[in-house]
Amino acid sequence: MTSATPEKVGFRQRVRQIFQVFKFVRGHDRLIVPLMLAAFLVPLLVGIGVAWLTGLWVIVPLAVLIAVLATLIVFSRRVQKATYAQVEGQPGAALAVLESMPGNRNQRNWKFTPAVQVSQQQDVVHRVVGRPGVVLLGEGAPHRVKQLISTERKRVSRVLTDVAIHDVIVGEDEDKVSIRKLQSHLQKMPKSLTPGQVGQVAQRLQGLGGARPPIPKGPMPKSARAMKGAKQQMYRGR
């Protein structure tokens, strides 16, 4: 049995992906061009000014590198903002955001099982296993989602008696977590499992089953999927 090898992406294809992302974000974000220009020019001009005053022209190449890095950071942040705007409010959006987390390409720290509980009104609960333990991630009307989470918690508790189980409901209310803050919220949770234990816990939960219709498998539109791919390429290239 042979293991799948990651698909190699050529330089031209990577540049084409990033350019497509830039075109899309520019159509929805008027600030991206001036912000990227400012991020590039400010450190460059400061570096040239310091070099001119001190005579240390070796500073200029360093200023160029800093300018390029600052531009990439600004670009990445604006892409992330546009991605959230595209998926926000769609069924399965929270899971799509989590699956695009930097550092999760090998799915070692987080393992996702989508739509373990679904209501007729398309409220949904996803099961996420990570360093904090098991996270039951709910999307939809709070009163229905809480009932779905309670049902799934009972199922998980029958399999796991020694692992922490957390409830997270996505939303904009005070007792919920905004989709824009979801990644950081999960990453800030207290760690109770090692990466190796994450895989073991996920394997123990496999018998509970996975996705159930009628939840749409992927809410992200084509443009947002392209942005996700380009972000991964940028992280891979750093």
Automatic annotation (TrEMBL):
Membrane-crossing residue ranges in chain numbering: 31-50, 56-75
UniProt keywords, alphabetically: Membrane, Transmembrane, Transmembrane helix
Region: Disordered, residue numbers: 208-238
Name of the protein in question: DUF4191 domain-containing protein
